[in-house]
Amino acid sequence: xxxxxxxxxxxxxxxxxxxxxxxxxxxxxxxxxxxxxxxxxxxxxxxxxxxxxxxxxxxxxxxxxxxxxxxxxxxxxxxxxxxxxxxxxxxxxxxxxxxxxxxxxxxxxxxxx
Length: 113
Fold this sequence. Notes:
elongated
């Protein structure tokens, strides 16, 4: 799927869940969220995750355990998975509606003939 130019972001939920994070951890977590949203997943590889967060491997490993608590099963994120599924459902509904509309338009052309 192509890069998604925007994402829903609940500031109150984020703030409630992350108040305990250091500034470095906030930045790393946010960069992981943004990458996840844009790409649809995260790699399960420490070097790649360190690169995504802009941290050295030493910094990444020092913060990994805290950040990993926001994820499950190989760097899956509950909220983003929900939003990606929701977005896909909306896309499919709009696509079906457009196809139905196009079909009706084409049928009306034949009726005029």
